[in-house]
Write a structure and sequence with these properties.
Elements lengths: L1 E6 L4 E10 L2 E11 L4 H16 L8 E7 L3 H18 L3 E5 H8 L5 E8 L2 E8 L2 E2 L4 E4 H9 L6 E3 L14 E3 L6 H10 L33
Parallel strand pairs: 1-4, 4-5, 6-10, 10-11
Antiparallel strand pairs: 1-2, 2-3, 6-7, 7-8, 7-9
Length: 225
């Protein structure tokens, strides 16, 4: 299966083309750079460059996989809109992949905590033992996350942008402060996903920081009591 993967959810802008056959993932073309903003201006060009490196037309793609969150509100929208638009144009299935699941898969399985720095004293987190998830993705305070990390077995891996927040508290655990998931891990999960149960729908674990306006432009302020 030829899979085009798109990731703009965290600290990377990634578009990659992979051939996935069972457990074997072969890179055909990849464009990926660290990026905090500006994904919307660069993503289409990244996808074009990845396809050119692979020597393929977009019609050769069998499936599109996109990180669905948690992550940046704006970044998620950019990646999901691009993937769904391309999927509709090509008549190809589009699957959403959890950013936390893709981070954990980037570490090779085993005991792990996938951690994304959510700011405001929180992390987005999901925990694994022996490659099996222990519960759903959550938004946790740093204190609650520390308690969960303390239950992990020796040799467990802390992976993702939130790993550095716990480096001093857990020096015996492997630290992998990745800015985003490995494209190969994302391709493997996208190829294995069932389109019927993995829709390209954003996963938000916290309400947006921006609040809607309380009045329309030009509308008078409400009188104070």
């Amino acid at each position: 299966m030829r899979v085009l993967v798109v990731d703009t959810a965290l600290g990377l802008c990634t578009a990659g083309v992979f051939e996935v056959e069972e457990a074997v993932v072969r890179r055909l073309g990849l464009k990926s750079e660290p990026m905090a903003k500006g994904h919307s201006e660069r993503l289409a060009g990244f996808a074009r460059d990845a396809m050119a490196e692979a020597g393929l037309a977009f019609e050769a793609i069998d499936r599109i996989g996109v990180t669905a969150g948690p992550g940046s509100f704006t970044g998620l929208r950019v990646g999901l809109a691009f993937a769904q638009g391309l999927g509709a144009a090509l008549d190809r299935p589009v699957v959403g992949v959890s950013s936390l699941d893709a981070l954990a898969a980037s570490g090779g399985g085993g005991a792990a905590a996938a951690l994304i720095d959510a700011r405001r004293g929180q992390v987005y987190a999901r925990f694994w033992t022996n490659g099996l998830a222990r519960g759903a993705a959550e938004a946790l305070s740093l204190e609650a996350a520390s308690a969960r990390i303390a239950d992990l077995p020796p040799g467990a891996m802390l992976i993702g942008s939130g790993a550095a927040l716990f480096a001093e508290a857990f020096p015996g655990l492997t630290q992998a402060p990745l800015a985003g998931p490995a494209p190969e891990a994302l391709a493997r999960l996208a190829a294995a996903a069932d389109p019927a149960t993995s829709p390209p729908r954003p996963l938000y674990l916290r309400a947006p920081d921006a609040a809607p306006p309380t009045r329309l432009p030009g509308q008078a302020r409400p009188a104070r009591p």
